[in-house]
Structure formats: structure tokens, C-alpha cells
Amino acid sequence: MVDSLYYLPNDIGVSALDCGKAFRLLSPQEKKYAHYLSRAAWYGGLAVLLQTSPESADIFVMLQRIFRKQTPSTLAQVATAAGLSSEEYQDKLEALVKASQAFEEQPAEMEALWNSCSCLLYSLEDKQKQLGLGDKGITTYFSGNCCLEDAELAQKFLDSKLFSTASDCAVDGECESCCGTFNFEGKEFTVKRGDYAPIMERVSYHLKQAYAANENQRKMLEEYCRSFTLGSVEAHKKGSSYWIKDKGPIVESYIGFIESYRDPFGSRGEFEGFVAVVNKAMSEHFAKLVSSAEVFLPELPWPREFEKDTFLKPDFTSLDVLTFAGSGIPAGINIPNYDDIRQSEGFKNVSLGNVLSVAYATKKEKLTFLEEDDKDLFVKLNGPSFEVQVGLHELLGHGSGKLFVQDDKGKFNFDQSKVMNPETSEPVSSWYRGSETWDSKFSTIASSYEECRAECVGLYLCLKKNVLSIFGHEGEDADNVVYINWLSMVRAGLLGLEFYTPESKSWRQAHMQARFVILRVLLEAGEGLVGLEEVTGQDGKPDARITMDRSKIHTVGKGAIHRFLCKLQVLKSTADVEGGRALYDFYSTVSDTGTQNFLRLRETVLLRKEARKMFVQANTKVNGDSVELVEYEGSAAGLICSFTERFQDDAEQLDADLLDMSKRDAPCW
């Protein structure tokens, strides 16, 4: 049962991400713009292989070589000829690799590839089966012998050297002032440039081909290219500023080293790039939410001084994804993640409509842990309620709250003599200084803590009837949407236990940890608001049952979230790492003591879990003066075919570059 965490079943759901209608409505120039941005995103997304584990790039290259030579259906025939059944064809990889045409044509190279990754591919040793620092897991962000204390020292060095001189790097254009060997707190640090250079070269090449529709897009692409060519964070920040100013484009995109969820230290950005087309009908709902934001923000449970001085109204659009390259596809995004830009220039929100419609489509017979009476309503309203939650989470969750800062010149962005801490009734006594950021201060808990804060904002504000009416929900329908939204959050908190590792007492997914924390808060509220009991299922195996008293959501539930959300914001605003960590770690604790035995419930969750769907994405290709959309069936074969065709232009050189970059880093592990 524990091992099931680390493999996917052969019958995992695979769905095509449909964007055909949206793409075909684009003008020829918009299609070309989307095509070249997509090419840049897909090439850049390959950096994730090198940001994950030592064997990832080798596995990718090996599979690409096999499937470029033979399609999945052809390989099935090869497998049968080699004596493998249809089930074994999907499981016994070594026999298939050695029976493939790719192996037949290049036996030495393919043997070397197999040997380099096969043991690690199947290893379930603690250090190799999950992301983590030191003995707790593997990560290619740090060398194999790096522990948390080493990571903290490295972060202090980076804060003192690189980020404090970012403006100098932008001036000299080459970032040479950041490179070299430095002594810091008795340790020697050597800083070099050029990681992922062959990939970033391809990214920049395709960005330069993209046809910009306006000056903001032109400058945005120019700065992105400079960032990926020189390794300049400052250039990416400038590109992000132009991106914010590019209001309401038909083709929306963002690209770069963005989210830090999968860095065990919570600081380094993983590459992602997306290209999507605006869904005008759904975007109208979000536009109304944006226009009402200044009415809803004062409703949040913290004092006015803890809110941004000015709410900079962002773009908020519903998009159909054409391309999303990275380690996963979210349902919504609030970017950029640069705190200084968000506070002074604003941000954008997007809801990914075609992802929502596929990922959150639920079949009644596969619903776990709910009472029968709740299942029909859940199936009906899980999608609409999540749409409301995503809107509030992204716009008024991530878009709210102020960070108290004293800059390098000693200037404060708040009146430290007057602003009171509502939790202590004393003047605010801590804040961010100089180059400190939310991520650098709160490090390992920053991502999950912020997701939890945004989720709480969604739960809190969805109780407002004028919020629900924006999304077309009135009367009994509105009440049902609130109920399913809260019930869904509680269920998600229980399901989140799949992503907790008891051996290392660590969480592997920021959003899932956040939802478990909310489950704990609502259980703690008592008064029968939430029930969670262990039962025996109809199959005689352990099961669990969640109940929620909908009559107490607006009273007991609202009060609990009000108090918790205020604490989260105050600790964040005041850079109170010690207090924030104590609070968040307490509610994140998974134990076998107390009213609920969460460790035992985790075993039940693993027993009943359903694997998340995989997405098949389309490709684009230039044909003369036009751009064509190439779509694939929603199956494992369609997924494989989409990837082999995606990189066929320079396949062999790309293989060589990926293997070379992987080999260069190998001594670190």
C-alpha cells in the first residue's frame, strides 16, 4: 500500500486538453505568435528534467529514442513477439527496451542509457523515491550531501551577493559581478553561469521569432530573451512588468523559472511556460469580480493597515490552454511571483477553463469518503464551485495583503509607530529588511502557507451572496455552491494525506498540505461543523466518512476561518517566521494520537486513492504561411506521439545536449 505512492496504475485516466475551437478563431498572426511561444515553452520545459532527479533526463532520452523509431502499437507487436503479454508489455520495460528497433540500431548507446537510469527508475530507497534534502530525498537543486543547514547558508550568501547586486548586473549587461569565488562566513562559494544553456538558447531563438502585436509584447519578449541569454533575474522582472502592462491579449502567455513548490528549501523557481487563448464568455465573470475587488477586500478579517495601499486591478481571464510545459498543469495562476512588482505594479490572474472542465469532472461511482446523500450534488456542483474558489483564491487570495518592509535606505512602507498587531495589541515589531523576500524568509513553508492563506480567502469570501451572483448563482443554487465548496475543501484535506511521508515527517505537495491544515482548523472548530470517522466499507476494507453540517458554515465555520486567516496574514505581513512556522507546523502535523488517527486514515486514503488524470496536449506546426494545430487522441499512445512529434526538428542534437547537461552534473550525486 505504501509502495502505491510511487507508481501509477496502467489504467490511469488520460484526457485530451481540447483547445481546437479557441485556436481556430485566432487570426493568422495570432496563430504564429502562439506557435513560437509554444515552441519556446516546450523547449524550456525540458529544464524540469534537470531540476528533478539525476536520472530524469536519461529516462526521457531513452523513451524518446524508442518511440521515435516505433509507435506504441508497433512496439506492442514487438512485445508479443518477445513473449510478453499485453499486461507485461506495460510493466516489463527492460525486455521491451532490448527488443526495440532503437536498441537494435544502437545497442551500445541504448545499453548505456538503460544502465544509467534503470536502477534509479525503480528504486524505492528513502533517499531516491521522493524529493527532499539530505537523507530525506533527492533533488538536483542541491548536491547529494547538502542538508538544510547548508541550504540556509547558501540562501544567506545568495541574499547578500546576488540579489543585492541585481541592479548592477542589469547595468553591466553581463552579470559578471555576480560570478566568481567568494568567501562568506568562513565558507567558499563559487558562482558560475550557463546552466541549461543549450535549452535556453532554443527558448530565446523561438521567442525572437514570435510576432509581437504591440510595444509591450515586443519589450516583454526582448527582456525574456535577455534573461535566458544572460541569466539575469532583473531582465525577467522587467519582462514581467511589460507583461502586466499588456492588458487583455487574445493570446496570453508567461514563461520562466516561476514556482518554487518542488524546491525542498522553497526558494528556487522551476521552469514553466504556458500559452493559452482567451475564453471571452467565462472571462466576463472574472472581469466583474475584478471590478468589485475593492468592495470585497475590506471584508477580509485583518486591519486596513495590513492590506496593500492601493489595489492595482489586474487582468483576470479564463483561458483555454494550448501549451503548458512544466511538471504539472494548475487550474489557475496568479503571477508574477516577484513581491516588489506585485506590490507596486500589480499582477495578472488566469483561470484555465479547459483544464478545469477535464480535471474536475467527477463520476459518482468513483467518489470516496462522502455520504450517498451528498454525492449527486457534489457531481453536479464540484466544477462550478471550484470555479468560484479559483477566482477568489487567485484574485483576492494571492492578490491581497501587505508585506511590511524597511528598504536598504532605512525607509519604511508603513508607520511603525502607529500600526498595531491585532494578535498582540502591541505595535508591530518585525518586518522585512533590505533584500529579504517572503520566500527567502519563510523558505520551506512559504509556498504551502501562501496557498493555505489563498484557499482560506476563497472559503471566507464565497459566503458573500454578491460574490456568488457574479458567477450566476442565486438563492438555493448559491447555498448549494457554498456547501459543496466547503465540503470539497474538507475532502481535499483528507485526500491530501496521500502526499505526506511519515518516515521523514514531510509534505510533498504545497496545495495538499494547505488543504489538510484547513481540515484540521475546521475540525478544531467543533460544534458538529465537520465530522470525520473511520468506518468499514461495503467491501469489508477500511473506509472513512466525511460529514458537514451546512447550517453551521456561516457561523462556526466562518468564525474559525476568520480567526485563522487573520493570524496567517499578520504573521506574513510582519515577517514573523518563528510564529508563522509554529502555527503552520502545528496544523500540518499528522499523528496517530488525538480524536482522529490521521496516520491510520492516511493508510485508508492510499487504499482508496484514484490516480490523477494525465493530459494530452496538441502541437502546432508551420505550413507555408499558415500554422496548423495537430491534435491527438486522449490515450497513452496519443500522449507518447505528441512528445515524439514535439521535438522531431532537432531530436538527435537535443538528446545529446540533455545527456551532456545531465552528465556534467552527475558528480554532485
From TrEMBL:
Catalytic activity, EC: 3.4.14.4
One cellular component (GO) term of this entry: cytoplasm
Catalysis performed (reactions): Release of an N-terminal dipeptide from a peptide comprising four or more residues, with broad specificity. Also acts on dipeptidyl 2-naphthylamides
Keywords (A to Z) from UniProt: Acetylation, Aminopeptidase, Cytoplasm, Hydrolase, Metal-binding, Metalloprotease, Protease, Zinc
Top EC class, one word: hydrolase
Domain of life: Eukaryota
Name of the protein: Dipeptidyl peptidase 3
Species this protein is from: Scophthalmus maximus
Lineage start: Eukaryota, Metazoa, Chordata, Craniata, Vertebrata
